[in-house]
Design brief:
The protein is α/β, with parallel strands linked by helices and 251 residues long. It has a 6-stranded mixed β-sheet, with helices on both faces. Strand 6 and strand 7 form a beta hairpin. It starts with a helix and ends with a strand.
């Protein structure tokens, strides 16, 4: 980990998740764990993404400190109680969709169907977060190699000391030992310091990831239902030859 990587890398990655990763108590209405990774070019992040989100917020709120949180938006809670007004809600969601469609970012998503995963592996089942992390970074490794880049600082939303420490350990294991399909030597060429930021820090990249995660989860759980939010997200998903940035497991 170097200062150069932290401040001068070409790309930055942001994590967000949807659903919980418990296999002992599976929510029958949401039996899915999804890890969403947004990768942005640092220059585009500074010049386009951060200003665009701030300008959008200032059109609806008194300040740009509002955190665009998909759950609160859907439920019109907290500062998003303004969305209880049908006219405001319509314009807000239309403008947000347009914003998400035009922002420059690349998306990597891994979803674990927990019931099928638990049934397949039983007591041998691993933490879905670890599985999702591996599948996502196999694809991110492909992306970074194609870009001929090795430095990728990763920013994740803080979830609590115990959870953050567990993710940090899993991430370190992945970066040093590789995966079944990708050697340790390949992963060791990546320089990926991971840091955790609180929701109050109002990190734009984490908010973009959050706004991608839930629509994708809903699409996977109910693929036959129209989902405009996912239609906006879909074009951002990484594709290169046979490599697809959306991994669903088990199939």
């Amino acid at each position: 980990m170097t200062d150069t990587c932290l401040s001068q890398s070409r790309f930055i990655a942001f994590f967000d998740e949807c659903g919980d990763h418990s296999l002992t108590k599976i929510d029958k209405d949401f039996p899915l764990f999804l890890l969403c990774t947004v990768i942005v070019e640092r220059d585009a992040y500074a010049r386009q993404i951060i200003p665009a989100l701030a300008q959008f917020k200032l059109r609806y709120f008194a300040h740009e400190g509002i955190n665009l949180h998909s759950r609160e938006i859907r439920k019109a809670e907290g500062p998003f109680s303004i969305l209880q007004n049908a006219g405001v809600r319509q314009s807000f969601l239309a403008e947000l969709s347009k914003l998400m469609a035009t922002l420059p970012f690349t998306l990597f998503i891994t979803a674990i169907h927990k019931n099928a995963y638990a049934a397949r592996y039983g007591k041998e089942a691993r933490n879905p977060y670890d599985v999702a992390l591996e599948y996502s970074f196999e694809r991110i490794l492909h992306f970074m190699e194609a870009q001929q880049e090795s430095q990728l600082p990763v920013i994740a939303e803080a979830r609590g000391q115990q959870e953050d420490d567990a993710l940090r350990a899993s991430f370190h294991k992945l970066m040093t030992q590789g995966t079944y399909y990708n050697s340790a030597e390949r992963f060791q060429k990546l320089i990926c310091p991971i840091s955790f930021r609180r929701k109050q820090d109002n990190i734009s990249g984490i908010q973009v990831a959050d706004l991608c995660a839930h629509p994708t989860a809903r699409h996977l759980l109910k693929p036959d239902i129209a989902n405009q939010a996912f239609d906006v997200v879909r074009p951002h998903i990484y594709t290169s030859g046979k490599i697809n940035g959306l991994k669903v497991y088990p199939k």
